[in-house]
Write a structure and sequence with these properties.
Elements lengths: L1 E7 L3 H12 L4 E5 L29 H11 L4 H5 L1 H17 L4 E2 L6 E4 L5 E4 L2 E2 L12 E7 L7 H13 L6 E7 L11 H8 L2 H11 L7 E6 L7 H12 L3 E4 L6 H16 L3 E4 L4 E6 L2 E7 L7 E9 L9 E4 L2 E4 L6 E2 L24 E2 L19 E3 L9 H4 L2 H18 L2
Parallel strand pairs: 1-2, 1-14, 2-11, 7-8, 7-9, 9-10, 14-19
Antiparallel strand pairs: 3-6, 4-5, 12-13, 13-14, 15-16, 17-18
The structure holds flavin-adenine dinucleotide (FAD).
């Protein structure tokens, strides 16, 4: 079975690499163990939230910060990809999501602060439109509404913490909380997935609006947990705003995150519609390497296991959460090709003993070293396999947690790697 490009990994980087390669006319196959970390995320695309990463003050413009970035972080994936390719990739991402009816608001040249379910803020640069009315620089009064029985969101906790931030002058709006009782899903458990499915239906939205209307005060915006629809979220959000006559916004919840799942489903079905084949749920992939080239990927361990071959390959397997990196007591390794990994040999330098330090955990920036063409290189800078490219979390030197740069790095390096892989044909 022969393809032009095989992508390993179905997270944001792998999906974007597939989109870029297929736009070049390549026949593309995605192979992956699972769906990656999108369902863990807010569904928002972080550009660059903190620079330096230990700064307590969020970056206001990732684009402006990038001007100084290369001097501080010459090895960072953003420095390798460069401003023009980052902007082009994010524009193409926004075109794709708009065409799939999940439009994203924002741009790389300014960050939004959006509320989290715990009542903190998250600097990010592209947000689904269903979240945009919650931007914390907009003044006004907000009702946060929780649902009795939905354990993932306490409107009271979120409102109290957000009001503390407002008192410190860090955000503009003020908040009050209510809990909606008696929300029925016809016997189904009250969780994010079931609620999102219910909000896809207009009858459910009608009933919900009738229950909520008496709780809203004049001039208040409404903040709700991010469960307003699964397949038709933008429509459900717009319809509820009309029914309630006020601005509404969603607040992302802990995993499984509905905005993250919506994005995954949108991109995956777009790719399938364009002829990209995806095989997801694989337990064992075994690469065939020979004379500085990847020759194929075997699915499984038996002698009869199928072999998939391509002219070029993109490695987009993420870090420790995704499964692209793993650790033994004294070694960190790349799990598929055993590529050289950039990390300090002294184990004590892998961790910061303060778990939640602003500077981040060193292991979050370990990964595979690449050249300007995103080809993995050895410590002497030599390309390891001429037809292999890498993208996303697997790359060294970016700490998506501390910098808040994960989505931006995944999209920009995914596009570049997919395009370069397609051109290797
Ligand atoms: C809890 C959490 C919350 C986050 N929130 C945000 C956020 O709100 N906004 C943001 O921009 N970023 C966020 N990030 C960061 C962001 O998720 C990542 O930086 C980015 O999604 C990485 O994408 P990726 O495609 O490189 O890797 P992943 O999403 O990790 O995907 C890796 C893929 O590779 C597959 N894979 C791995 N190993 C193998 C193998 N050996 N064989 C076959 N397949 C394999 C996996 O199954 C998966 O499909 C968050 C990260 C975490 C952990």
């Amino acid at each position: 079975m022969f393809y032009d490009v095989i992508i390993i990994g179905a997270g944001l980087a792998g999906l974007m690499a597939a989109e870029a390669a297929r736009e070049q006319g390549a026949r593309v196959l995605i192979l992956a163990r699972g769906m990656g970390s999108l369902p863990l995320t807010s569904g928002c695309i972080d550009g660059l939230g903190y620079f330096p990463s230990s700064s307590p003050v969020p970056v206001s413009s990732p684009l402006t910060a990038l001007g100084r970035f290369k001097d501080f972080h010459p090895q960072h994936p953003y420095s390798k990809v460069g401003k023009e390719r980052i902007l082009s990739a994010l524009n193409r991402f926004q075109d794709l999501t708009r065409s799939g009816a999940i439009p994203y608001a924002g741009q790389f040249d300014s960050n939004f602060l959006i509320p989290t379910a715990l009542g903190t803020y998250h600097p990010t640069c592209l947000v689904p439109e269903t979240l945009k009315n919650g931007i914390l620089s907009l003044p006004g009064r907000v009702l946060l509404l929780g649902f009795e029985g939905l354990k993932d969101f306490s409107s009271w906790l979120a409102a109290e913490n957000l009001n503390l931030l407002q008192a410190q002058g860090k955000i503009a709006p003020s908040f009050r909380a209510e809990t909606l009782a008696g929300l029925s899903l016809g016997g189904k458990a009250l969780n994010s997935l079931n609620l999102a499915g219910a909000f896809d239906g207009e009858d459910f939205r009608d009933r919900f609006a009738r229950q909520v209307q008496p709780l809203l005060k004049k001039g208040e915006k409404l903040g709700l947990p991010a469960v307003l629809g699964f397949r038709f979220s933008h429509q459900a959000w717009a319809d509820l705003q009309k029914k309630l006559g006020t601005e509404i916004f969603e607040i992302p919840l802990p995993p499984p995150s509905i905005p993250g799942l919506r994005l995954y489903n949108l991109v995956r079905s777009h790719l399938q519609g364009k002829g990209v084949r995806t095989i997801i749920g694989l337990s064992v992939l075994k690469p065939i390497m020979e004379a500085g080239e990847i020759k194929g990927i075997v699915l499984g361990e038996s002698r009869k296991s199928p072999v998939y071959r391509a002219s070029a390959y993109v490695l987009a397997t993420g870090k420790f959460v995704g499964g692209g990196l793993d650790a033994q007591r004294n070694r960190i390794f790349e799990t598929l090709f055993d590529l050289p990994v950039q990390y300090p040999r002294n184990r004590k330098e892998w961790f910061n003993t303060k778990l939640l330090t602003a500077a981040g955990q060193p292991f979050n920036s370990f990964g595979v070293e690449v050249n300007e063409n995103l080809q993995p290189v050895d410590p002497a800078g030599r390309v390891v396999y001429r037809n292999l490219f890498a993208a996303g979390g697997i790359l060294a030197h970016a700490d998506s947690m501390a910098e808040k740069s994960g989505g931006g790095v995944a999209i920009s390096t995914g596009f570049v790697a997919g395009e370069l892989a397609a051109k290797t044909r």
